[in-house]
Specification:
Layout (H helix, E strand, L loop, with lengths): L2 E5 L3 H12 L3 E5 L3 H10 L16 E3 L2 H7 L2 E4 L6 H9 L6 E5 L12 H8 L5 E8 L4 H4 L5 E6 L3 H11 L4 E6 L2 H23 L3 H22 L10 H12 L4 H10 L4 H8 L4 H16 L4 H11 L4 H9 L6 H4 L3
Parallel strand pairs: 1-2, 1-4, 2-3, 4-5, 5-6, 7-8
Antiparallel strand pairs: 6-7
């Protein structure tokens, strides 16, 4: 049995905490909200994020970061990308031993263009970090809590650390593979949210299945081009954290990014969409970072560029789509050679 703390009691953090608790681990779920911690401990529910789910009675919550860190041999970071540095600052004063860190968020920090494992490595004292493992793949919290079959990947330069995370999480409904390609796994997980926003816009415009199939396929080409240029393994992008995560996020009503894009396609403006969603939409922030990465690495990413113009230059979605369709003629396969 492992002592594990999950930092972040949103839908995904709660679902993963359930997996760990059901696997018999001593699991503590940290939230910055005292009332949420009290609800989880007394009612075994998290109504805001998983309203129809009954949590395991051996899953406990706390709003005390010192208690959470002191409890842990493994810490799972499940907060939005924009909150990671702040949470790391809170942890630093409490760390007094080596801990295995696992991150499950999917994003890239704009301007610095750092991946989440890089943010964690930069923000935490090296002497207290055993390893940093990425857990990613096609996985909706709403389905994991129903024990629907789900398959993800644990990635780390240290295969031993990845295998430890594999052992922590794996059970009859939650299968975990391992991978050493941290860059590819993180880029695939982050950029699929960008393409999912575009897929939602396409559906909001009622463009149908042809358009969405094209977006997914050409979106994967963009993700792969950039990921390989950054040092990722080309094969990673045809795996669970590439094509797999892209499919599930572009096609499911569970996807926040798809839902946000769908509202944009129906004519709502970005501030209205974010207000109505009431939850973090990682793809918006990641679109800015992806646009900056495309410029930095001189990689053609036309879908990302079009989405950036919709989100940050107030271009109408239909105008952006028309511009995409009328780009210069080119060959498909040549365009996908790395």
């Amino acid at each position: 049995m492992e002592k594990v703390c999950v930092l972040g009691a949103g839908s995904w953090g709660t679902a993963l905490a359930m997996v760990l608790a059901e696997n018999g681990h001593d699991t503590l779920l940290w939230t910055h909200r005292t009332d949420q911690a009290e609800e989880i401990n007394s009612l075994h529910t998290n109504r805001k994020y998983l309203p129809e789910t009954e949590l395991p009675t051996n899953l406990y919550a706390t709003s005390d970061i010192a208690q959470a860190v002191a409890h842990s041999e493994t810490i799972v970071v499940a907060v939005p990308t924009k909150a990671i540095r702040e949470v790391c600052e809170k942890m630093i004063a409490e760390l007094d031993k080596k801990v295995l860190f696992v991150h499950v968020s999917k994003g890239i920090e704009p301007d610095t263009l750092k991946r989440i494992s890089e943010i964690l490595a930069e923000s935490l004292p090296a002497e207290y970090v055993e390893e940093i493992v990425v857990l990613s793949g096609p996985s909706h919290a709403e389905e994991v809590v129903l024990h629907h079959p789900t398959t993800v990947t644990a990635a780390c330069a240290s295969i031993e650390a990845a295998e430890k995370v594999q052992d922590l999480f794996m059970n009859q409904y939650f299968r975990v593979y391992t991978n050493k390609d941290v860059i590819g796994v993180e880029i695939g997980g982050a950029l699929k949210n960008v393409i999912a926003l575009a897929a939602g816009i396409s559906d909001g415009l009622n463009y149908g299945d042809n358009a969405k199939a094209a977006l997914i396929t050409r979106g994967l080409a963009e993700i792969s081009r950039l990921g390989v240029k950054m040092g990722g393994n080309p094969f990673t992008f045809s795996g669970l954290t590439g094509m797999g995560d892209l499919i599930v996020t572009c096609t499911s009503v569970h996807s926040r990014n798809w839902r946000a894009g769908n509202l944009l396609g129906q004519g709502m403006k970005l501030p209205e969409v974010l207000d109505q969603m009431g939850m973090v939409v990682e793809g918006v922030r990641t679109t800015k970072a992806a646009y900056q990465l495309a410029e930095k690495y001189d990689v053609a990413m036309p879908i990302t560029t079009a989405l950036y113009s919709v989100l940050f230059s107030d271009i109408e979605p239909k105008v952006a789509v028309d511009a995409l369709m009328m780009r210069m003629k080119k060959r498909e396969i040549d365009d996908m050679i790395y």
